[in-house]
Specification:
GO terms for molecular function: nucleotidyltransferase activity. The protein is an all-alpha fold. It has a domain of 62 residues. The chain has three helices and no strands. Helix 1 packs across helix 2 and helix 1 packs across helix 3. The longest helix is centred in the first third of the chain and has 20 residues. The radius of gyration is 19 Å and the shape is elongated.
C-alpha cells in the first residue's frame, strides 16, 4: 500500500518519487529509450531517505520492478513472423 500522507519534501513523498524514477529507468531500459533526468529538486530528498534507511534502495527497487512489470504488460505483442520470412525480416 502506498503512503500518500506526505507533501513535497517529506520522507514519504521522497520515497514515492524514488520508486517512480526507478520505475521510469527500468521501463526506459527495457524499451531501449534514453532517459533524461530533470528532477534535481528531488535528489536531496532521496539522499535523506537513503541515508535514513540502509534498505530503502532495495525496497524502492522491488516496488519499481513490480510497477515496471505492470506497465510493460500493456505492450502490444510483437508481430508474428510468417514461415516464409527469413530471420532477418527478408522474404525467403
Amino acid at each position: 500500500m502506498r503512503d500518500q500522507t506526505g507533501g513535497f519534501g517529506s520522507k514519504a513523498y521522497a520515497s514515492e518519487e524514488l520508486v517512480a524514477e526507478m520505475t521510469a529507468a527500468f521501463v526506459c531500459a527495457t524499451l531501449s529509450i534514453s532517459p533524461t533526468v530533470r528532477h534535481a529538486d528531488y535528489i536531496g530528498n532521496w539522499i535523506d531517505v537513503l541515508r535514513g534507511d540502509n534498505r530503502a534502495i532495495f525496497h524502492a527497487a522491488s516496488k519499481a520492478s513490480r510497477a515496471a512489470d505492470l506497465l510493460l504488460g500493456f505492450r502490444a505483442p510483437p508481430p508474428a513472423s510468417t514461415e516464409h520470412e527469413a530471420p532477418d525480416g527478408q522474404e525467403a
